[in-house]
Specification:
Layout lengths: L8 H22 L4 H15 L8
Helix pairs in contact: 1-2
Length: about 55
């Protein structure tokens, strides 16, 4: 019996979109940009966390 083939493209793109602001914040911090520029991306992460996301992600 073969496992059922699932389409993961949508889940993968949702996960990348959810993590993108966090990566941006890290890149800004490492580049030693101003605190406000780093916090902009962090606030984006917090805003995304307040919205419900699919349970299977």
């Amino acid at each position: 019996m073969r496992p059922r083939s699932r389409v993961l493209r949508r889940n993968r793109s949702l996960a990348l979109c959810e993590n993108a602001p966090g990566f941006e914040a890290i890149e800004r911090f490492v580049a030693e940009e101003g605190q406000w520029r780093v916090r902009e991306a962090v606030f984006g992460v917090l805003a995304l966390e307040s919205e419900p996301v699919g349970a299977r992600l």
